[in-house]
Amino acid sequence: MPDTSVSTPPVPLLHLEGLTRRFKGRVAVDGLTLSVRPGEILGLLGPNGAGKSTTFQILAGLLAPDSGQVRFAGRELSLSDPALRRQMGIIFQRGSLDDLLTARENLMLGARLYGLTGERARERVESMLALIGLADRGDERVGTWSGGMRRRLELARALVHQPRVVLMDEPTQGLDEAAFRTFWAHLKRLRDAEGITVLLTTHRADEAEVCDRLAVLDAGRLVACDTPAALASRMGGDILTVEAADPETLAREVREKLGVDAKVVEGKVQVEARQGHALVPRLVEAFPAGRLSSVSLRRPTLADVFLQLTGRALGADVPAAEPAPRKRR
Amino acid sequence: MTAEISTAQPPVTAVAPAPSLPGTLALQWATVRVLMARDVVRFFRQPSRVVGALAQPILFWFVIGSGFAGSFRVEGAQGLGYQQFFFPGVVTMVLLFSAIFATITVIEDRREGFLQAVLAGPGSRLAVVLGKALGSSAIALMQASLFLLLAPLAGVSAATVNLPLLFSVMVLSALALTGMGMSLAWWVRSSAGYHAVMSIVLLPMWVLSGAMFPLKGAGTWLSWVMVLNPMRFSVEGVRRALYGAEASVVVGSPMSGTGLEVPVLLAFATVFVGLAAVSVSRRE
Are the beta carbons of B190 and B161 closer than 8 angstroms? Predict the structure, then answer.
């Protein structure tokens, strides 16, 4: 078969086929077909209500899909099958740690829940504590810990029983920049050490950038699935952002005077242009002094890509202007 | 040739089994044990809970017991004072409060995400419910046993206590009450809502169990409510174990003193724990 070339990935570790889930007439996940390759970190990217969390809940075995199937390592499995559940480690948004237990006890609890016993359980607990860099704090109760440390312990707990797939729902929600970086450094290290495959949901553009591949979801449908770099290159040009007192009027004038497509995004005029640097002087010339309060040029981010793919802002990270309440259920 | 090679390849990379893959039953049992042990550890790490659990029944027994002592008289049982009469009722109350507390921890576990993580694991819903119910029962049993050390003060002689009956009644009552609490908890979203359920369902059930006043004295419809009350079998079982069959007949109602407490409580425990397991799996 000429098809089986180098670029075709091996059997996907996890394959979703036509996954659909409705809630009272609203389709939350709409025929989602997605393959997760062994060893990759795949991010489900989208704003609240895009269907990420529903997909996550279905994969976590907490919600039954209305239709569609899941194959794990080529075998079709029911999501409630203990054989499949054992192969998954799960990090929930709300966290699963017991505040009254120590870090070591929390990990041991996780290990035992998945059937590890005796020396093997102890070994795993100690090696996980060491891998997340918290070996010397294993006997502290986790109730007093910071958000970043708790998240790392969640990661260790999800991995303690040696799953092959780790599911994470908005794993870095609420973490500051430093804790976010630490979490991801540990995640990548664990991925290499343990040979796991990761599927996570996120609405953070910075988190999306560090995934190996992204599945972009909008209104329950998959709109794109590619590496962050490939997605960014779809934008083609640069992003020119102009701040001014009256963005709507300015956008119209930019369209008229310069013949480029300008739109208002979060209160600023935004232009996507292939030759961004050449546009800057034309733009500045075209308007009288004082009309523009700032002009900036940058490479497109995944937030821009998302906007282009779906016509919606990824939002939520950014103190959202008006569009956010409309998306609320 | 390429076709030949591809057919020779195994169709999929088989899921490599972990070195010591536990069987399904072993996984279920592990879930039960882990959850049970966790609740016991948590109990001892909350000093206020431990103190409250010990002090509250003693206070209740002394305060209410002595308050009613003067006015209380049971027909045909002149020897049985109110403090004696009330003692088995307080034992049941300890079991009930422990079950209520366990139920509140279920609501907390659900709110904080702990339960979600357990349910996403390989253990079944029944294993999760059993683990919680057994953990709560172990705590209840410890509390009740400590309170029972005061039994000599209630005129119980250690030599005549029917220990097998006492412990089977306590274990089964604890399981039944926790199961009942958990079945209710699943429909109630908040612990505030559960407090309402507690005061309109669970506490009246205790009051109408023969714990505070004999079933005989109540009106007709009320006495039927009392007859069908699961907690009644718990109170009567404890009373019979501590004071002998006559005491439970004297203060009782139809079916009192017939020795039916254990089978009836076993039935209630099975039904309520089963109901709790069904409610856990019925999720949005």
Answer: no
Which residues numbered 84-113 in B keep a CB inside 8 Å of some CB on A?
112-113
Nearest residue of A to residue B22 by CA position?
A115
A84-123 per-position pLDDT tens digit: 888 899 999 888 899 999 999 999 999 999 988 889 999 9
Q: Where are the alpha helices (DSSP H) in chain A?
A: 52-59, 82-86, 103-113, 118-131, 147-159, 177-194, 205-209, 228-233, 247-258, 276-286, 302-310, 323-327
Taking Cα atoms as reference points, which of B113, B103, B165 lies closest to residue B136?
B103
Residues 72-91 of A with CB under 8 A from B: 72-75, 82-83, 85-88, 90
pLDDT tens digits along A260-305: 888 888 788 888 887 778 888 888 888 887 888 888 888 887 888 8
Residues A288, A305 share a domain = yes
Tokens of A217: 């979801």
> What is residue B19's DSSP assignment?
T
Q: Which residue has the higher pLDDT, A59 or B256?
A: A59
| pLDDT greater at residue B7 or residue A271 | A271
Structural domain contains residue A108: yes
Determine contact: A94 vs chain B, CB below 8 A. yes
Q: Are residues A178 and A207 in the same domain?
A: yes
Residues A119 and A255 in one domain: no
Q: Are residues A173 and A249 in the same domain?
A: no
One domain, residues A293 and A205:
no
- Structure tokens, A258: 């310069």
* B52-96 residue pLDDT tens: 888 888 888 888 877 777 676 665 555 677 888 888 899 999 999
Residue B272 structure tokens: 């309520």
pLDDT of residue A247: 87
Partner-chain contact B122 A100, CB within 8 Å: no
Can you state the angle between helices B125-148 and B82-112, rounded to 10 degrees? 150
A-facing residues of B in 119-178 (CB < 8 A) are 119-124
Q: Higher pLDDT residue, A313 or B258?
A: A313
Q: Strand, helix or coil at A33?
A: strand
Nearest CA in chain A to B25: A115
User: Would the CB atoms of A96 and B114 count as touching at under 8 Å?
Assistant: yes
ipTM: 0.79
Q: Does residue A261 form part of some domain?
A: yes
Partners of A115 on chain B (C-beta within 8 Å) are: 21-22, 26-27, 30, 122
Tens of pLDDT, residues A37-72 = 999 999 998 887 888 889 998 888 888 889 998 888
- Whether A6 maps to a domain, the answer reads no
Q: ∠A295-A243-A235 over CA atoms, to 5°?
A: 65
Average pLDDT over every residue of B130-157: 89
The verdict on a CB contact (< 8 Å) between A73 and B15 is yes
Q: For residue A221, what is the DSSP state? A: E
